[in-house]
Amino acid sequence: MKPGSQPTRRTVLKTATAGAALGTLGFPGLLRAQAASIKIGVLHPVSGIFSYSGTQSRAGALMAIEEINAAGGIKSLGGAKLEPLLADAQSKPDVGAAEVERLNEAGVAAIVGPYASAIAIATTQAAARHNLPHVVDVGTADQVVTRGLTNTFRFSPGVSTIVNFGIDSLVRINDAAGKPAKTVFIVHEESAFGTNTAKVLNEELPKQGFQVLETVKHANPTRDFSNIVLRIKAANPDLLIPANYYDEYVLLTRTLQQQRVAVKGVYSILGGGASSYKFVKEFPDAAAYVMDCNHWFDPRKAAALALKAKTEKQGLFFSYEVFLNYNAVMYLADALERAKSVEHDALNASLASSTWDKHILPYGPTKFVNGQNTGARPAITQVLDRDIKVIYPNEFSSGNVVFPVPPRKT
Amino acid sequence: MLEPSILLPAAINGLTMGAVYALIALGLTLIYGVLHIINFAHGSLLMAALYGVFFLYKLLGVDPYAAMAVLVPAGFVAGYALQRSVIGAIKPGRDQNVLLITLGVSIVLDNLAVYFFSGDTQTIDTRYSLEMVNLGVALVSLPRLIGLGAALVFTAALWLLISSTDLGRAIRAVAKEPHGARLVGIDVDHIFAMSFGIGTACLGAAACLLLPMFYVSPHVGQVFVLIAFTVVVLGGMGSFTGALIGGLLIGVTESLGGLIFGESAGQLAIFLIFIAVLLFRPTGLFGSRLS
Amino acid sequence: MRMALVIAAACAVALPLVVTSDFWLGFCITVMLSTLMGAAWNVLGGYGGQVSFGHAAYFGAGAYTAALLGMKLGVNACVALALAGAAAGLVGLLTGYLSFRYGLRGSYFALVTLAFAEVLRILAGAVDWSGGGVGLYVPLHVGAANLQFASKAGYYYVALALGAGALLVGWAIQRSRLGAWLVAIRENEDAARALGVHTFACKLKAITISAALTGLGGAFYADYYLYIDPGIAFGPGVSVEILLAPIIGGLGTVWGPFVGAIALQGAGELGRRLLGDAPGLSLVFYGVLLVVMVKFRPDGLIGLFGRFARQRPAHA
């Protein structure tokens, strides 16, 4: 946001025009609302066990708000700027719910957050009591959008979509390579997304001709993967499918590297570090050729690359929390523009009817059914040349899949 | 699954992991043995030490093992100060209050770390982090083997300290009978602080040995703290040999139990052992005397 | 004194009419929930002197029982609440039996309760039928019979009833022979036994009552927040939160848990307001406040209220 006299004059002219337009449309009341800002609740777990994801999420949301304001705010509301009200869910559902109440009483038009599914259940519930619009940034559990709440919206995909897409893509990749992979070893974390992923994999993979050799569940946190890696070594699978959080992912892949375990491919589904720039930077050898079915951005869009550069300039890694939150706020801003109002009902209706396509994600056409964007889907990435490339869907791809992976250089 | 080719490496993995537990438990058992307080802040202090090792490596290029020369004395000073000025400075005899204070300290430390280091998980990559030693039956990671050796060395060193030095004698006296010790002229508060300091110095060493094979984040302390308590109870509160043997036993049980019965079963086994020891032999394997 | 109580009760009941802010009503609900479980813990830890680090075992038992009865068997929520309390009481009885039968006291007792809670946490994560690691999403069916209310006031009254009930139980115990025996056990168990007190039976009664009340809190949590998982139900953080209020407020006093609950929830909220924008600092504030509260009021904050601190304080 640049200080200076020129923007001021332009703003005056803009407001005057907007004012005239609004006046002719018969909404003189809205003129008075021009100077007011639109408060947005930015609620994330910036302390507690999810603190890293929480701070990344917050950074993404704030970048979006800043850009919107720099571009003139919500034009249909007289250039009203978005004002972020920050809140910390402390990685606990009860604190998240209490913060929703506080934000509601501070007069927010909507809530963006709270990253984690467990917290999202509580916060969307609390917001629903006031019909307060709540855009869920990540929160992949299916239950987030299947409780019939008319105030809850998720632009990004849920775990079922992600897992099913992952299986379809795996079949395609395997077929295209001449079906080198038949046996699969699954390692998953014990909570919602890991368990659900493993369950669906065990149901669907055999139908596609894969044999699941073993499914191993591990705790959060797990201190040591040596034994799990021993089992992987003994089972000698073609493909390893991990689904876990970052810390455990790091330990697992490092241990695989240490124990010189070679598989034809590591294909993660919601892998904690599999499509993480941080992981690639810090462990290029362990990360090489790893595939992931996860949230990703559209590498063809200049805006996405610009956001990536901006994020990295701040010294942060461009992780999914950043671009999903950026996107969630942009989606919300578009809904505000179309609603021309900050009233809950109007905004909820606008969010539900959104067909916003100016996003930076590799999705199909935007359409909301019961609060879920049906166009949302993950992407398949692979770590190639120390960078993360999209290998599927083809229209977004920026690299060619390497499968089976070449033998590890010892 | 149960062939020797897997069982043996798993058992060795358990031993090396158990050595880590032992290292962390050594300080805890001393603190309990002398001050009779369950130190809730132990995990957070470990986390602080790990960050110390991490920054020494990242900013000054100091090798983690060499960093022991810094972390051990620093840990000692920090622990001494903490006990003297915060934990010990309340009226004695109110155990639950001491607990709450250590709890408060741990909340403060954990969240200062979140504030300063932003919840990010950090690892270091030294030349030898991925080195493996071929023992024939198994490939063991070098840092873990070093950890095993260090656990043995530290246990012996602490045992020597307690049994053969004047300080050790004073500590034993205070542990056994604080009032009597005061009567014969021992500065009990000073000894309490010394003991706490030695306990945190052990954590400093443990951190140096742990970082090459693990990671550091503001929550890393919570990963080890309950296991450390289990080891202390199993080995006997106040016994160093107990902490060592207890740690190794827990490590092997967790490893083999997890391998044969599943990871949850491995975790369960640890706590069932914990309960069994408390019920049937509360003084632990080696009794709760300072040795 | 009686007059003050009546006025207090009237204020408590009339509160939702005055306090219309959902946020502050929510705060009051959290305070009453904390009071309920703090008072429960106080029965065993304050009066009985048996410090438990594992009350999450009873909280979680209550939460899971209530959630599962409702979800799998369609049991009415109010009935489920009562059954949850009973189930938690049973868990308390079992853990108490094992611990006391083998003579565990002091730190050993504290540690074994911690272990029991951890065992339940691991089991809850391993058993798929009850949700496993995924947890249980309690279905949203708004209706008083389901203990799910459209407005916060409904939840407030339930929480108020439970919290006040627990304080009443504390008061009743304090005036009863069981209370006197418990205090005797707390001050010197062997002497008490020598004087003819049935220490084993008394401690068992205390732990059962304590567990049952805590279980009610768990059941309420499940109906209020609509999601539980092994960590939320049985985690060590839960045990710590439960014991903070009565110790800070004043062990072995009737109003201690309530005073402690207000102080702690207030400290947490104050921290969030002052420092909420900076990650972690609000909790640093909370931790510092905790240490300060313990240092300056080692007998509990109730000491600030003079005569309420009478009657069987922690240390005569």
Structural class of chain B: mainly alpha
Largest sheet of chain B: 2 strands, antiparallel
The pair of chains with the biggest contact is: B-C, 48 and 45 residues
Order of strands in the sheet with the most strands of chain B? 1-2
Order of helices and strands of chain B: HHHHEEHHHHHHH
Rounded radius of gyration of chain B (Å): 19 Å
The helix/strand class of chain C is mainly alpha
Distance between the termini of chain B: 40 Å
What is the overall number of helices of chain B? Answer: 11
Count of distinct strands of chain B? 2
* Cα end-to-end separation of chain C: 23 Å
Please state the average pLDDT score of chain C: 89
Can you summarize the main beta sheet of chain C? 2 strands, antiparallel
Residues in β-strands, percent of chain C = under 5%
Average residue pLDDT of chain B = 88
- From the spread of the alpha carbons, the general shape of chain B counts as globular
Sheet with most strands: strand arrangement of chain C: 1-2
Oligomer class: heterotrimer
Rg measurement of chain C, Å: 19 Å
> In what range is the share of β-strand residues of chain B?
under 5%
Would you kindly provide a written description of the structure presented here, covering whatever features stand out?
- The complex is a heterotrimer of chains A (410), B (291) and C (316).
- Chain A is built from 14 helices and 14 strands.
- Chain A has helices at residues 5-25, 28-32, 51-70, 93-105, 117-128, 159-176, 192-204, 226-235, 246-258, 277-282, 284-287, 302-313, 320-339, 344-352; strands spanning 38-44, 82-88, 110-113, 134-136, 152-154, 183-189, 211-218, 239-243, 265-269, 291-294, 368-369, 372-373, 379-384, 387-392.
- In chain A, strands 7-6-8-9-10-13-14 form a 7-stranded mixed β-sheet, sandwiched between helices. A 5-stranded parallel β-sheet of chain A has the order 2-1-3-4-5, sandwiched between helices.
- Residues 1-33 of chain A have low confidence and may be disordered.
- In chain B, strands 1-2 form a two-stranded antiparallel ribbon.
- The longest helix of chain B has 32 residues, at 4-35.
- Helix content of chain B is 73%, strand content 2%.
- The N and C termini of chain B lie far apart (40 Å).
- Chain B has a domain at 24-219.
- Chain B contains 11 helices and 2 strands, in the order H-H-H-H-E-E-H-H-H-H-H-H-H.
- By secondary structure, chain C is an all-alpha fold.
- Chain C has a domain at 34-235.
- Chain C has helices spanning 2-18, 22-47, 56-73, 77-101, 106-126, 152-175, 177-187, 189-194, 199-225, 230-234, 236-249, 256-275, 281-296; strands at residues 136-137, 227-228.
- In chain C, strands 1-2 form a two-stranded antiparallel ribbon.
- At the B-C interface, helix 4, helix 9 and helix 11 of B face helix 5, helix 11 and helix 13 of C.
